[in-house]
Design a protein that fits this description.
CATH architecture of the largest domain in chain B: 3-Layer(aba) Sandwich
Radius of gyration of chain B: 22 Å
Number of strands of chain A: 16
CATH architecture of the largest domain in chain A: Beta Barrel
Shape of chain B: globular
Oligomer: heterodimer
Structural class of chain B: alpha/beta
CATH superfamily of the largest domain in chain B: Nitrogenase molybdenum iron protein domain
Distance between the termini of chain A: 84 Å
Number of domains of chain B: 2
Order of helices and strands of chain A: HHEEEEEHEEEEHEEEEEEE
Strand order of the largest sheet of chain A: 1-2-3-4-5-6-7-8-9-10-11-12-13-14-15-16
Radius of gyration of chain A: 40 Å
Number of strands of chain B: 8
Structural class of chain A: alpha+beta
CATH class of the largest domain in chain B: Alpha Beta
Strand order of the largest sheet of chain B: 2-1-3-4
Order of helices and strands of chain B: HEHEHEHEHHEHEHEHEH
Number of helices of chain B: 10
CATH topology of the largest domain in chain B: Rossmann fold
CATH superfamily of the largest domain in chain A: Porin
């Protein structure tokens, strides 16, 4: 503005013919102005420098502060603690309140479990039971293997209801074998059937299906080695073979499960399973299992003493992709056939009334349907059937070598049927309440009504493995 | 074992071997498996003709509750690369499947396991890690794919991961990534303009999955229908939520496709607002076929809802 008015004044001076005077006046004025400007510039430059110094100082301070913080955090993270290698840990608490008009049927075995009540050693009447407080631990061992253990404490009726600690599983699993192979060794739930290798608290019901409890003896525990293989096919096909000291309670092979024995006294198991997607929303799973215990006494005794347990399983699932989380249907079941030559009453090989060694077979199985009404509510129904094996034999069918009659000494059929209705409520993924009613119709004992209320909770990293999938 | 059986077994083994070798021939392209469809779409752009890519989950599913289908196992077994979202997004189903797949390449920590969350700065990282807060994600909210800038990080991480596994194709991956990012940049500019009226719009959703989206476009998250992440609402919580919405003037209720429509509609009716069904993954609604579709669809539908509810700002 100032400059412009000055220029204007200059113009006027020239215009009025005062031109010759103007340059001298202008030059004088210009020199002093330049001098002023120079001074101002220098001042400003000095101010700039000061500001720059202040900024630098502040920035360095800030960087130092941030660095100090970062270094502290880094240093802290660099410190190693023994606990850094702690495995994943979870604890499942499973508690049951029940009322039973009669306890369930008796275990038809010989050996330590003989005469024990199926599924539950607890007597009839009202009862509260801490079924399990189960600690699950797992981690990678090294680049080649991982390992896991399940340590369970359950209230022991024989010990004034004090919890007794048991190692349910403790196994090492390979992770890097070639040819789609995996080897598992230690104590584990053998790959036989579907529900036999579920832990109690992971079952879809309160109790294990009575047929599984009778034929496998609860969980399919074994001590041994398992090799499994995934076929390189576009569809899922998986095979496994296991050799172990037993399968579950394994009360019918007539061999002690704790002592060493001839190789033929071990239990050999195999399983083949496959799966098909019918479409996005419907799928089917099929499996077949076999467990064979070719008893050593087979050789020394005259009798056919071995035991063979065969199982078939299926699962159909309707799980609409868009809303399966809150509405879906599962129908599944297993069929078992158990044939063995041990005499559960007198020991040694089983004989008919003519003294000929015989094997006796029994059928059993269950089927259930569960409907998911919402994310939280799942009602279901189960039917279970099994034949008892321990009845005294009457006559042998000469063609099959099997007992001709399934009637026991008192003339009752040995069929056992259980009808079950249940309702599960999931307040969250980690907590579950379940109400269940069992009506048992047993051939050789009083019928029973049972009511259960189960409350289960999981602490820690409770993630389901592949074999525990729903 | 009789001779006949032995011969049959050999025959079976031979047939299987033949079968698997013919499969190998069919798969000359790099076989990439992703957990979610967004990753498949972006991986297909980055990998181009060099790869075939397949997503295990479909867009309409609940990404936290994908069923553990055994049919996923052979896919993971053959996968040369597995791409996952990370931040525990797939924690309920992918670890069990990977451990069954017998494919050491795609085990966590190996180069075939590409976790696209690595470049993401996670939001809502819990300061108090307790299950009383629901089934929370200890590493932070994993729904960063809904922010287009998240798409950039996903593409970059996939490109780096693929290059690490197949360095011979580095140039192709880099060129493809550049093309994708150029398109994304142009789109982001468009979306920013398009989404201007959404700035300051308050909303609730069923699950806490629109955090990154809301932050990008200046929207305000007021609450969720779920009590806590993964926990169904209680009656008391819903009363409180509606009260809160009334006080705050919230008129927009987002429903993700895998949640039931009932509760969101009830809540919207109580505050005189609008329910808008927004996919959280590619394929969540039929119109959304690509990652670009996903972002654009969500902005457009939100605009419609906000305008209908009378809460949209001026352009």
């Amino acid at each position: 503005m100032h400059a412009r008015s000055r220029a204007l004044a200059l113009l006027i001076v020239f215009a009025f013919g005062l031109g010759p005077l103007a340059p001298a006046v202008f030059a004088e004025e210009k020199a002093s102005e330049l001098e002023n400007l120079k001074k101002q510039m220098l001042q400003m430059e000095e101010q700039f420098r000061q500001l720059q110094r202040q900024i630098d100082k502040l920035e360095t301070k800030k960087i130092q502060e941030v660095e100090a913080k970062a270094n502290a955090a880094l240093d802290a993270s660099k410190k190693t603690f023994a606990s850094q290698f702690n495995p994943a840990i979870s604890l499942g608490i499973d508690t049951i309140g029940s009322y039973k008009s009669n306890a369930q049927g008796f275990n038809p075995g010989n050996g330590p479990q003989a005469g024990a009540r199926i599924n539950n050693t607890r007597p009839a009447g009202a009862d509260f039971n801490l079924r399990s407080a189960e600690l699950f631990i797992s981690a990678d061992v090294d680049p080649f293997t991982r390992a896991y253990a399940t340590i369970n404490a359950s209230a022991d009726a024989a010990n004034n209801d004090e919890a007794t600690l048991a190692v349910e599983e403790a196994a090492i699993v390979t992770t890097r074998l070639p040819y789609n192979l995996t080897v598992r060794g230690g104590r584990f739930f053998a790959d036989f059937g579907v529900l036999p290798h579920r832990h109690d608290h992971d079952l879809p019901f309160v109790d294990r299906p009575p047929s599984i409890a009778a034929f496998v003896g609860g969980e399919a525990q074994t001590n041994g080695v398992e090799v499994s293989w995934l076929a390189p096919t576009p569809f899922f096909l998986r095979a496994s073979g296991t050799v172990g000291n037993k399968l579950g309670a394994d009360f019918r092979d007539g061999v002690s499960n704790v002592n060493s024995r001839p190789i033929k006294g071990l239990t050999y198991m195999g399983r083949l399973q496959t799966y098909f997607d019918i479409n996005d929303d419907n799928n089917v799973e099929l499996g077949g299992s076999i467990a064979e215990a070719p008893n050593a006494e087979d050789v020394t005794n005259t009798g056919r003493f071995e035991r063979r347990l065969v199982g078939m399983d299926f699962k159909y699932r309707w799980y609409p992709l868009g809303y399966g989380v809150r509405q879906s249907l599962t129908i599944a079941g297993e069929l078992l056939h158990d044939i063995g030559g041990a005499d559960p009453v007198n020991g040694g090989p089983r004989r008919d009334i003519f003294g000929n060694p015989v094997r006796q077979g029994a059928w059993g199985g269950y089927v259930y349907a569960e409907y998911r009404l919402s994310k939280q509510w799942r009602p279901g129904f189960r039917f279970d059937y099994f034949q008892l094996q321990s009845e005294p034999l009457l006559v042998t069918n000469p063609f099959t070598g099997l007992p001709a009659s399934t009637l026991n000494a008192t003339g009752h059929r040995t069929d056992n049927r259980t009808w079950t209705a249940y309702l599960t409520w999931f307040p969250s993924e980690f907590q579950r309440l379940r109400l269940q009613y069992n009506r048992s119709d047993r051939g050789n004992a009083q019928d029973a009504n049972e009511f259960f209320l189960q409350w289960t909770a999981f602490l820690g990293s409770h993630s389901h493995g592949f074999s525990e999938r729903e | 074992m009789t001779l006949v059986w032995r011969n049959r077994l050999w025959g079976l083994a031979f047939a299987l071997a033949l079968f698997s070798s013919s499969m190998a021939r069919a798969e000359e392209k790099i076989y990439v498996v992703t957990t979610l469809p967004d990753l498949a779409d972006i991986a297909a752009r980055v990998g181009g003709d060099l790869i075939t890519v397949e997503s295990l989950a479909k867009g309409i599913e609940d990404p936290h509750g994908v069923p553990i289908k055994p049919s996923f196992v052979p896919k993971l077994n053959r996968a040369q690369v597995l791409v996952i979202m990370g931040l525990e997004y797939e924690h309920s189903w992918i670890p069990a499947l990977v451990s069954e797949a017998r494919n050491p390449k795609i085990l966590k920590g190996n180069i075939g396991y590409i976790d696209v969350s690595l470049k993401v700065t996670p939001k809502e990282v819990p300061t108090d890690l307790s299950r009383a807060k629901g089934e929370l994600h200890p590493a932070g909210n994993p729904h960063f794919n809904l922010d287009p800038e998240g798409g950039r990080l996903i593409a970059q991480t996939i490109a780096e991961g693929l290059t690490l596994n197949f360095p011979q194709h580095r140039a192709t991956f880099e060129a493809n990534l550049k093309a994708f990012l150029a398109q994304l940049d142009a789109k982001i500019q468009e979306w920013k303009v398009m989404a201007r009226p959404l700035s300051g719009v308050k909303f609730v959703s069923y699950h806490q999955d629109f955090t990154y989206f809301a932050d990008r476009f200046g929207m305000e998250y007021v609450g969720t229908i779920e009590l806590k992440p993964g926990i169904e609402p209680t009656a008391g919580h819903l009363v409180e939520l509606v009260q809160n919405m009334k006080t705050e003037g919230v008129k927009v209720v987002i429903r993700e496709p895998h949640f039931s429509e009932k509760v969101p509609s009830q809540i919207a009716a109580q505050v005189g607002g609008k329910v808008v069904k927004l996919p959280i993954m590619v394929g969540g609604v039929p119109e959304v076929k690509t990652y670009f579709d996903l972002i654009e669809y969500n902005i457009r539908e939100l605009l419609k809802a906000a305008q209908a509810a009378g809460v949209a700002g001026k352009v």
